């Protein structure tokens, strides 16, 4: 059974619907096993795009996967059972809760406790102007070159 923190107010996602999690800490019932990231930076436009695959298991049945995300435009999120079975890929609905830098990925069918699943997320964003997230930086060599 999915649990929430003891806060009484249900947070609202960026689209106004209730966000299914109200704790800044991620739920413990989703266990990440392995991450694969592919990121392409465009230093001319100061943007990037990428795909991340996360292998997960659930310790209890759930339809909700909560992850951290900061200022990413998620264009596609899918779930498949196992690591290789692309035929079982199903789209996930995405809710954003910027106050906690979280997204909720909503599966059409509950994940079962135990099996391996793969979440694939396609996204894009601007390179950060601070030292938070993925950012552009320069350095000088000992010879003074940038």
UniProtKB/TrEMBL annotation:
Top-level lineage group: Eukaryota
Domain (Aminopeptidase N-like N-terminal) ranges: 32-145
GO biological process, any: peptide catabolic process
Annotated GO MF terms: metalloaminopeptidase activity; peptide binding; zinc ion binding
Gene3D superfamilies: tricorn interacting facor f3 domain
Stored InterPro entries: Aminopeptidase_N-like_N (IPR045357), Aminopeptidase_N-like_N_sf (IPR042097), Peptidase_M1_aminopeptidases (IPR050344)
GO cellular component terms, semicolon-separated: cytoplasm; extracellular space; membrane
Listed Pfam families: Peptidase_M1_N
Protein name: Aminopeptidase N-like N-terminal domain-containing protein
């Amino acid at each position: 059974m999915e649990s929430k923190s003891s806060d009484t107010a249900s947070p609202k996602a960026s689209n106004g619907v209730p966000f299914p999690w109200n704790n800044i800490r991620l739920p413990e019932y989703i266990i990440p096993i392995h991450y694969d990231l592919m990121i392409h930076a465009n230093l001319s436009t100061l943007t990037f795009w990428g795909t991340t695959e996360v292998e997960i298991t659930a310790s209890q049945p759930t339809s909700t996967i909560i992850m951290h995300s900061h200022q990413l435009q998620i264009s596609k999120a899918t779930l498949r059972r196992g690591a290789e079975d692309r035929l079982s890929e199903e789209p996930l609905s995405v809710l954003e809760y910027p106050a906690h830098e979280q997204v909720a990925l909503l599966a059409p069918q509950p994940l079962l406790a135990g099996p391996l699943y793969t979440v694939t997320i396609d996204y894009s964003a601007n390179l950060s102007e601070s030292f938070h997230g993925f950012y552009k930086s320069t350095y000088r060599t000992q010879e003074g070159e940038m």
